Amino acid sequence: MCYPLCMSKSGQLRLSCTKTIPIPNEYVTGLNGEYAAWSYDEERAPTFKGKWRSEAFQVPAETPFDLEIGTGNGLHFAHHSFKHPERCLLGIELRYKPLIQTIRRALRHDAKNARVARYNAYLLNQLFTPGELNDVYIFFPDPWEKLRQQKHRIIRDDFLIQLFEMQRPGSKLIFKTDSLDYFNWSLTRFKRSPYKVTGFTYNLHASEFAAGNFITQFENIFIRQGLHIGYAVMERV
């Protein structure tokens, strides 16, 4: 069976399967080949639903299990897994090259608490059961700036309700973007969601949150361009 992964131009989810790629490159083959012990395609990932701790990570049920939505090249992912060996971390991403780059970076630090999966963040209920997740990180998602594209934004009312249900009480949702429009859009939805907004700023690097912030590769680019970074922290109460 193949699970829906990609959004078509019409806004409908369509099928996209790793096994159907006619000429797979090294990143495609690495997903179920060299890195198969730490990475999962769209067919394997849902088999861990409700069993990520016990089967994918093989840790006790009380172990914190965090999620990064959209790993990029994996700099934050590797940093988090290395800095918090007591926590498990799953990264989900659609693109093959970032997925393999991400898990490679983590494994260079001998991370045993890191896994990645090729999956669409719109479909979290296919990956997790209610209360399965702890902290969630969403850094620099596609802002879909044009009005007709905004329906594709990941921060939506229905998504936040779904994500809230997947997290354990006391967990955090942490969000960063360089788009002022998207940040305002997201703040509006965060404030009317079940989450409690515990802090936010329109200029992360001039705020109280700067000291504890890990600067991603995208972030470095935006800083050099003189852009401000919007940052928000929500709690699953």
Largest sheet: 8 strands, mixed
Total beta strands = 10
On the 0-100 scale, what is the average pLDDT?
Answer: 93
Total tally of structural domains: 1
**What is the CATH class?**
Alpha Beta
Structural class: alpha/beta
Shape verdict = globular
**Termini gap:** 36 Å
Helix content: 25-40%
**Low-confidence parts, pLDDT < 50 over ≥5 residues?**
1-12
CATH 4th-level superfamily: Vaccinia Virus protein VP39
Strand order of the largest sheet: 3-6-5-4-7-8-10-9
Could you state the order of secondary-structure elements as H and E?
Answer: EEHEHEHEHEEHEHEHE
Overview of the structural elements:
The chain starts with a strand and ends with a strand. With 237 residues, it is an alpha/beta fold. The chain has helices at 26-32, 52-57, 75-83, 96-108, 157-166, 180-191, 217-224, and strands at 4-7, 13-15, 39-40, 65-69, 88-93, 114-118, 136-139, 172-177, 196-201, 230-235. 27% of the residues lie in helices and 20% in strands. Mean pLDDT is 93; it is low at 1-12. The strands form two sheets. It has an eight-stranded mixed sheet, with helices on both faces. Strands 1-2 form a two-stranded antiparallel ribbon. It is globular and about 40 Å long. The chain is built from seven helices and ten strands. It has a single domain (27-235), classed as Rossmann fold.
List the helices and strands and how they pair.
Layout lengths: L3 E4 L5 E3 L10 H7 L6 E2 L11 H6 L7 E5 L5 H9 L4 E6 L2 H13 L5 E5 L17 E4 L17 H10 L5 E6 L2 H12 L4 E6 L15 H8 L5 E6 L2
Helix pairs in contact: 1-4, 3-4
